[in-house]
Amino acid sequence: MGSATGYGGRTLSMNSRAHPWMERLREGLTIGILSTPFLITGLATLQVGFLSNEHAHLIEKALLIRDRGRVEWIGFAYPPLPALMLLIHPSPTTATALASLLGGLLAWSVWKRLEILSFPAWIRAGLLLSAIATPTSLFLATQRLGMICALLLFFWSWRLYLAFTRHGRTDAAFLSALLIGFSFYASFYAPAFAIAFALSTPLFTRLHGIRHGIAILLVMLFPSALSVGAWMYLAWLFTGAPLGFLYEPGSSLLAALRPEEAFLSPAPMGREILERLISTPLYIGTGLLIARRQPRRLPAYLIPLALNLIAWNLGWAFPRELSLSLWILFALSGIPARTPRRWGLPLLLLALLQIPAGWFATRQGEMERWWTVVFEKHSPEMETVEREIATYLRSQTCSSVLTDDRHAYRIIAMAGTACPFILPPDPIFDLAVSQPARFAAYVLVPDTEDGFPTPLETRYRQRPPTGFRLEITWPGWKLYRRVSPDE
């Protein structure tokens, strides 16, 4: 009897241990299925030859770290998290695959939130479809590795923040603050969310004196302050510029985003906000629902909209795809858990309207170029030229091509190697700019007045360096070759 009981108990224990593994396997398969539409879309655009600015920037930084063999040069690559993720194999395919996987993980996280609603399964599935099938979501989950990584961390942090404010779970507050702090390594918008969460907390919790309020502020703000301080120290240690990631075009994603936003007056801001709200009708609908059922929570729900307006008034860019995705995520996660079933269908209709309304978001900037590639199935002229230059320079010897990756980062990414190039992080770069004949066999210079004027462009865009002659010209580029003594 004892042995039989022992066998049966062991079997029950094994089954109880096996069940979580089966659950994790099902979740993994679900995430894989949700990632598939993103992966197919991303690979299709890669076959045509499209490469986003952000992926090119991250791939170039990862190639620089890998080929130089110096991980500390991550100080030149902000945000560092997606660049480190690409170190396994810096290539457009890897960037697309990782972005698609994170997109599937984000979709699964949204589904887990929707499961707590009392709506029928088909309505919850339709709400999820509205988040996946918009042009903005497809673009982010295929062409914006850093941004989709930040969105995933923001969403997890937002869910934990709601668990703290709604149910009083102090562990959720700590985890939310830690995730926001960690997300700084994926997006420099993270500290703004930390400040907004901290200032909104008194709206949902009863403070027991000033010490209680200070404690909450410290819990929410300290991880982000620590992350920013740690990165500033690393940037100062390796680049000598602790705030360089904010203003140096070559060390931040300012070089890759190429923002078209430069709103200087209230009228353009108002038009842009109106267009973005039209593209996300569910955000408006959920906001009205919260205002009716839980009015005290409305200020927290409006955090992404407020941050958008504050960023513009400070002269910063707030990319359209980021704000639209945040609004959609806040709308889906902000639907009150006790919303009556009768509200399910109106919310679903508003959510599905986001798919055609999302076309407003594709009319400008890089998204317009991406959407054109998706439909017309041919490589843009810019990609064709850059790929031709990359193919020409890929086979050159190491440290033989002087160029500046603040302009040439796309060419380096398409070349698949940083070995042939002398770049700003290299110790000899400044000397090579002043005396190219001593250090380089080729000098690649942008032939355009757009963008940030680099020292290399300022010196040699109009005339070749001493000892060089014009070798080849491409639209927007000049390549000079060092002349041998017998020529």
From TrEMBL:
<keyword id="KW-1133">Transmembrane helix</keyword>
<feature type="transmembrane region" description="Helical">
    <location>
        <begin position="298"/>
        <end position="318"/>
    </location>
</feature>
<protein>
    <recommendedName>
        <fullName>Dolichyl-phosphate-mannose-protein mannosyltransferase</fullName>
    </recommendedName>
</protein>
<keyword id="KW-0812">Transmembrane</keyword>
<feature type="transmembrane region" description="Helical">
    <location>
        <begin position="29"/>
        <end position="51"/>
    </location>
</feature>
<feature type="transmembrane region" description="Helical">
    <location>
        <begin position="176"/>
        <end position="201"/>
    </location>
</feature>
<keyword id="KW-0472">Membrane</keyword>
<feature type="transmembrane region" description="Helical">
    <location>
        <begin position="213"/>
        <end position="238"/>
    </location>
</feature>
<feature type="transmembrane region" description="Helical">
    <location>
        <begin position="123"/>
        <end position="156"/>
    </location>
</feature>
<feature type="transmembrane region" description="Helical">
    <location>
        <begin position="94"/>
        <end position="111"/>
    </location>
</feature>
